[in-house]
Amino acid sequence: MSDSPLNVRLEQYEGPLDLLLDLIRKQKIDIWDIPIAKITAQYLEYLDRAAALDIELGAEFIFMAATLIHIKSRMLLPRDPELEKMSPEEDPRRELVERLLEHERFKNAAEMLQQKRLIEENVWSNPQIQKFLPDDEGPELAVTLIDLVKTFEQVLERAKNRPVYQLNHEDVTVPDMVRYLRSLFKSKPRNERLSVVQLFEQQRSRRAMICLFLAILEMVKLQALVLVQKDPFGEIMLRAHKRFDEIFTDETIAAINEGYS
């Protein structure tokens, strides 16, 4: 009998990374030491079962299957000991593991924001609260993080229809994007607002977009940046909070760097 966790029912996944994460977490596998042959077999079994049930999967599932097979073949090929001494080969699984961890962070953030939305929907706000806002806040509408997630999803969806350059060995990180945001806002007048959509669309890869999204989440959570709209359902803008200089320090970036290391 197969040891695959897919024996009972065929679950639905939003993408191949969701499927891989589920296989890894359900079996309590160390994500930094994935048994690539076993996971590849289980992944391919899922694709076979989906095909048997006439479940249509996107091209990204097939591409991931090819990626897994490629990684498996690289790990099976013998490596010349002398060549290994001269130029140690990086673990073929490393890039996949980093993508999985990045995807898991984004997924956890989305789930957290979904819970926050459910709480907000069941809380009555006081319409007189505007009287207690500082005068320098201006006629703005507060934006929930749920709105940011929706906007980000729309940008990613549009990105599928335009060239997005995925650089080889791109090493952009969330702390890199935090530093990018700090330098960007330091070069602007304090009350200037920047379009969140434009910030996302200026990035050259999906990885950079995700890292920027997580960086914005971090800085909004720390109250260094504020999400606002001028009109209901209007474009989401980002501006510096009055505590920007107090919070946006090298120590803050170092702490974030440690959290994502």
- Number of helical stretches of at least 4 residues: 11
Share of β-strand residues: under 5%
Secondary-structure-derived class: mainly alpha
- The strand count comes to 4
CATH topology of the largest domain: Arc Repressor Mutant, subunit A
Helix content: 55-70%
Biggest sheet statistics: 4 strands, antiparallel
Mean pLDDT reading: 76
Tell me the series of helices and strands, N- to C-terminal: HHHHHEHHEHHEEHH
Number of domains: 2
What's the gyration radius in Å?
22 Å
Fourth-level CATH superfamily of the largest domain? Structural maintenance of chromosome 1. Chain E
Shape: globular
Strand order across the biggest sheet? 1-3-4-2
- Poorly predicted segments: 1-8, 122-139, 164-169
CATH architecture heading of the largest domain: Orthogonal Bundle
CATH class of the largest domain: Mainly Alpha
Straight-line distance between termini: 39 Å
